[in-house]
Amino acid sequence: xxxxxxxxxxxxxxxxxxxLDNIQGQLGTKRLGTKFHYFQEIxxxxxxxxxxxxxxxxxxxxxxxxHQSDGRGRLGRSWVxxxxxNLYCSLVLRPALAPAHAPQITLxxxxxxxxxxxxxxxxxxxxxxxxxILLQGKKLAGILTESSCDAKRIExxxxxxxxxxxxxRERMPEAIRDRATSLMEVGGQGVSRENFLRRLIQDLDRxxxxxxxxxxxxxxxxxxxxxxxxxxxxxxxxGGDVLIGQALGIDHDGALLVEDDRGExxxxxxxxxxxxxD
Length: 278
Fold this sequence. Notes:
Layout: H1 3-12, H2 23-26, E1 35-42, H3 45-54, E2 61-68, E3 87-93, H4 103-118, E4 126-128, E5 132-135, E6 138-149, E7 154-163, H5 183-187, H6 193-214, H7 220-225, E8 233-238, E9 241-250, E10 256-259, E11 265-268, E12 272-275
Parallel strand pairs: 1-2
Antiparallel strand pairs: 2-3, 3-7, 4-5, 5-6, 6-7, 8-9, 8-12, 9-10, 10-11
Helix pairs in contact: 4-6
């Protein structure tokens, strides 16, 4: 679509396209935000970032889209991606971590994302293990990480993030209206997508640097402090298995700890977690 038509479409929705001209020069980051790839529309920012990584893109490149035609969430779910309202971005990472530690990148990104959200709204954000950010118990943002590893090293990680920013409830699909929210809905006013993106890259850069330099032990307490399901009864689906118990927090490596009905601690490395109403 020509640029003028794209801006006209944005205006019809009461929004404007992202203006990235000044962001890169104001980042002051060490690792991330080295180059932006901006699209009016794309199938998935993660898919494009993966293609970049597979062809040798260095760490820190960022893919941003106004709209995704095939936005993806965790466990094969779709991510609703209306144009001009929210933030859809993916980053190319080449971490100096062992493959076993790759899942810690998701948890680290959740800490950074929660820090960014907290700067834009008075309501404290909560983390839902392993990759969602909640406000008032509803989903605000999600993280999707995809890795390429061999037995000895991580070749690259694609860190995808979707955040509902200026997404009014009446425009949300009915299927997600009661379980999703946006910064506009919670804060009562729109937010600058450029300012949010700038702050997010800075927070990601800082937290990712801590993970690489000092290990996950330096990040874990901050994750625990924002864990929204601590002490709650949860249902964890792990393939064909189901675990019900009390969520305790995370283990030293980021695995979810759940106390089952026998009082035994169970480690969950991968699964889908939902709270059971008390």
